[in-house]
Design goal:
Elements (H helix, E strand, L loop, with lengths): L3 E7 L7 H10 L3 E7 L4 H10 L11 H8 L10 E5 L5 H10 L3 E4 L7 H14 L3 E3 L7 H11 L6 E9 L4 H4 L2 H6 L5 H4 L4 H17 L5 E7 L10 E7 L5 E7 L8 E8 L3 E5 L6 E4 L6 E3 L8 H5 L11 H16 L12 H19 L5 E2 L3
Parallel strand pairs: 1-2, 1-3, 3-4, 4-5, 6-9
Antiparallel strand pairs: 6-10, 7-8, 7-14, 8-9, 10-11, 11-12, 12-13
Helix pairs in contact: 1-12, 4-5, 5-13, 10-13
Pfam families: GFO_IDH_MocA (PF01408), GFO_IDH_MocA_C3 (PF22725)
Protein name: Gfo/Idh/MocA family oxidoreductase
Organism: Christiangramia crocea
């Protein structure tokens, strides 16, 4: 079968995530990157496309140019899916135009800058029946999928406590300098939306809490930290989670956790046991049970679920990381395009991005209303 033709918007020479998506797309031999718009400056985009050894005629000036010229190609050559790797404020207009022109879409998170924009995309996706993925990357890790399966199978019993933490420290050197914080696009609402920390990494934690437990968060109470009065964006926050009257949790996110790199930790406790996973040590899933020794589960072994093993590409003992996690998501998207999906949760969908946008807005609302409980449902 011929490879899926993939186009990319953004992700050029200066992008932090571009290489992650390109490696992921090539991992299972499912995609062929055929072109795109890698930079707002066409000359830089052309130069980068040359570096990737792409046909220069398919390095377009902008999205309109891409859509117009791709439409002239034979169906067997046209882009079938386009990845949107641009800053947040461009996600909505680009994804909307792609959906309107019949493309499948892979979009970085947060999905948009507002919940209303996300609802527009949701309606378009349903109308066109397009495949639309939002890259909550960490759901692709084999041991996260193992965690999800074990909870679903009741191996820890009834869930009673969820604790998700995502700590980084990268904003700390910038936030205390007025000029630097004013020049950081992540702290510019016109580019990022209404939230920095919760919008950037808090949504990962929110998505993970629901993904691994299979439960939905019904209410939240948030306390955010902006640190300086002239800083319009949160850079730290704690959110209490209520799945039900008897099942509760906490979400902690920070970008001023000095010295932290990418400390994303997920802990779920049931009445029979607990599970713990750490992104910086992603090949270990800790299984805790009362009156028993701690068990450490690792990828690639036969004791893992089929869902976990599908995303394991190397024998046990060979570390797999974030490239593999994103590769598993791209593999799930490829299977969806080919109508060959085998596992629930194989890739994060538009509905997950929609819920993420709702979470961002409800979190900010909870904080600004005086740290009150806010219902997640519309």
């Amino acid at each position: 079968m011929s490879k899926i033709k993939l186009g990319i918007l953004g992700g050029g020479e200066d992008s932090l995530i571009g290489i992650l998506h390109r490696v992921a797309a090539n991992m299972f031999d499912q995609y062929e990157i055929v072109g795109g718009v890698f930079d707002v400056k066409h000359e830089k985009s052309l130069k980068f496309g040359e570096k990737l050894q792409l046909d220069q005629s398919r390095i377009y000036k902008d999205l309109d140019d891409l859509i117009q010229n791709e439409a002239r190609l034979p169906d067997t050559e046209k882009m079938q899916v386009v990845s949107v790797l641009t800053p947040n404020f461009l996600h909505f207009p680009m994804a909307k135009k792609l959906l309107e022109n019949g493309y499948n879409v892979i979009c970085e998170k947060p999905l948009t800058t507002t919940y209303d924009e996300a609802k527009v995309l949701d309606e378009l996706q349903k109308k066109n029946n397009s495949i639309f993925a939002v890259t909550y990357t960490y759901t692709g890790y084999p041991m996260v999928r193992q965690m999800k399966t074990m909870i679903q199978n009741g191996e820890i019993g009834q869930v009673q406590k969820v604790d998700v933490q995502y700590y980084q420290g990268w904003i700390n050197p910038l936030i205390h300098d007025k000029e630097k914080r004013a020049a950081t696009w992540r702290l510019d609402p016109d580019i990022s939306g209404i939230s920095c920390c919760i919008g950037d990494i808090g949504t990962h934690a929110f998505n993970m809490a629901e993904y691994v437990t299979g439960m939905q968060i019904s209410e939240i109470l948030a306390d955010l930290n902006y640190l300086y009065e002239d800083n319009p964006m949160d850079i730290d926050g704690t959110v209490l989670l209520r799945f039900s009257d008897k099942i509760k949790g906490v979400l902690r996110a920070s970008q001023i956790a000095t010295g932290e790199e990418n400390n994303f930790t997920v802990k779920v406790y049931g009445d029979k046991g607990g599970l713990k996973w750490e992104q910086e040590n992603p090949n270990y899933l800790y299984f805790l049970k009362e009156d028993q020794a701690l068990q450490v589960l690792k990828p690639g072994h036969a004791y893992n679920s089929d869902f976990s093993l599908e995303g394991t590409k190397l024998p046990p003992g060979h570390p797999e990381g974030i490239f593999d996690s994103m590769g598993n998501i791209y593999f799930g998207i490829a299977n969806a395009i080919k109508n060959e999906i085998k596992f629930d949760g194989a890739y994060p969908q538009l509905k997950d991005g929609l819920k993420g946008m709702s979470f961002i807005e409800k979190t900010v609302a909870s904080h600004k209303q005086g740290n009150v409980w806010v219902k997640m449902q519309d």
